[in-house]
Design brief:
Layout (H helix, E strand, L loop, with lengths): L2 H20 L8 E5 L2 E4 H17 L4 E4 L3 E3 L4 E9 L1 H5 L6 E8 L2 E9 L4 E6 L4 E3 L2 E3 L11 E4 L9 H11 L5 E3 L4 H9 L5 E4 L4 H13 L3 E3 L7 H4 L2 E4 L1 H14 L2
Helix pairs in contact: 1-2, 4-8, 5-6
Length: 260
Amino acid sequence: MHPMLNIAVRAARRGGTIINRALNRLGDIRVDTKGHKNYVSEIDQEAETSIIQTLLAAYPEHRIVAEESGARGDSDYEWIIDPLDGTTNFLHGYPQFSVSIALAVRGELDQAVIFDPVRDELFTASRGAGAQLNNRRIRVSECQSLDHALLATGFPIRNPALIDSYLPTLNAFLPHVAGVRRAGAASLDLAFVACGRLDGFWEYGLQPWDIAAGMLLVQEAGGIVTEPNGADEPLKNGSILCASPRIHREMLKTLAIQGA
């Protein structure tokens, strides 16, 4: 395992331990609102602090970009951190949330960890070295037709201005696929595309920490990652479409035909 990935795994597991311990006292957790339907708990903050301390203990000169505490430092090595993706799920005891950590080197994603502390599933990827789930190689699905595909999505509930443009994309897919799921944690949706549990995923209005690690996982597992319009900067623009190569082409085609 790459040394920097090894440190990221250590950080993710420490964050996951904090999250798991808190599941037994959800009613006592302090929760604040930081935006429209956007919540932050003391557990988000505690996990993030632990993750950052672990990373900076090993690499004190690296830059940090974290959901709760923002950006610090100036370096070609940038850690992109979501300490608890799926906070709303977590606060309801709904077991779909994760720790997500990515490392970008000179602007290019290089290492990735997504840790599901409930299932004890560790997704990892290093650029050029493939993707793994609990140290076993993973690949995107071999589904050959959108008709048989299981897709995932996310509703833009935090940005109502996106709803009118999002709904046509949902309408475009629903008649043509086996099913669509909305579980509420983009990082795990991407990880599930990488390991073939899902055949494709699309969402709008995301932040870099939501998708950075998952993007590298999908790419290293043989998938394609773009924006829903086919553009190549999902990390910058916050809109993403990813799938195996065959399903990705069909998803882009479906959106184009429906004018979505």
